[in-house]
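User: Hello! My lab partner asked me to get a predicted holo structure for this protein. The small molecule is zinc ion, SMILES included with the sequence. Please write out the structure tokens.
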Amino acid sequence: MLSLFLALFCAHASVTDDLSRAPKSFAFQNSKAVYIDILEAHYQLEYDITGKVASVDATLRFQTDEAGYPMLDFVQNASEVLLNGLATQASELSTPDRATKMRVIAQEISSGLHTLKIKLPLISLLEWSNGGVHSAFWTSDLSERSFIEKYIPTNLEYDRYGMSFDILFKNSQVKQAVYANGDIQFLTDYHVRIQFPPHFNASALFFHTTPETVMRESRLSFTSMDGRVIPVRIYLKPSMLTNAGAQLKKLEGMTLKILAELEADYGPFPHPSVTIYNAGSGGMEYHGATMTSESALGHELIHSYFARGMMPANGNAGWIDEAIASWRDNGYPRGGAFSGNANMAGRAGYTRFTDRQAYSFGAKFMASLDNHLKDQGGLRPMLKRVIENHLFSPFFTEDFVSWIEGFSRTNLMPIFERHVYAPKKGEKSTPMTPMPHVHHQKMSLEELQNYL
Ligand SMILES: [Zn+2]
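Assistant: Hello! Below are the structure tokens for the protein in complex with zinc ion.
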């Protein structure tokens, strides 16, 4: 109970500046559509094993600092919406630049504290087999509305809040395994509670459940340079492999080696645990977790520092972590002369997803930046200081530039303006072909379904 209290207290304490990273509110129905700051959220997930239906019941406590119609996001239509106890509705609306859609609540509110209750069906990435349920909240940062809003009501990436799950497996005969990057507690065989850290946002959370017999796992630990013994859980689906045992052993060795390499470069691993699901082609990163192919393991684990440690506040900041991770994939080359422009940081202001040019052009840009900073020891020591000073604080590209400028005492904005923002009027842009990247291949829904 003490830990729950502390978690809630921290959730409240840590989010006070989240609205400073929210996009601008905009005109809506003679008033405004306003961004909110979720303070805490509880999600009850119910899986009825015999009825083969699943639902989400979310309770969100939030605040706004301006009056208007509150916005948040969830993709599935809600079956019930209650704002401060009164029934209302949530419809989709487009941002003024048409870059994305949000959900807006059909009830105007004053600034201050409010409570939303939202019920919706859970239908995505769900399979009823092996006597139980296979369900996952896997995400992508390469397309619109593909973070946890695909499954549960949440907010944009600028907003951090304490999330808890109560998961009920009803009418079930088999025990479920639960894989998540939070604190997992089995209250009974059929009731599981998960508390996630208070700095989590819509792209942080990893959740996967299957009947207990489906996966094979290995548990080990990694002793961090700061003395913490960090639990590591690696799992895979033996039915999709020829030699699961050997593969797990191999991944154990690789994981420990990569974590040691990353700590040497960027300091103590920023998360309390490591969860790795070895599946698919490429991978996706979460806070201290990943679903990944063997070859993408290093790429996905460095994302626990950059993407899910140094957290982008919006789609226009998402290119930085892909550029850094891809620069590492390439062996951290120190670039020489560099030309060209790819507008990865200056797209429409409400953009939510990452520009794919980050993998190729962005990686070259980081190599060039490393060269630019060679007299100060290069880019990696600067990135280490970013992690030390700005962990879990959602950032814009402009913040990143000013951090590196501060550490290096160098004026860098002109380089960023030339290469990663929209070209100025009269200047030509060099269009780059967005490259499909080996480490973030987009899997189809059918492919993802196979790995459930
Ligand atoms: Zn990546």
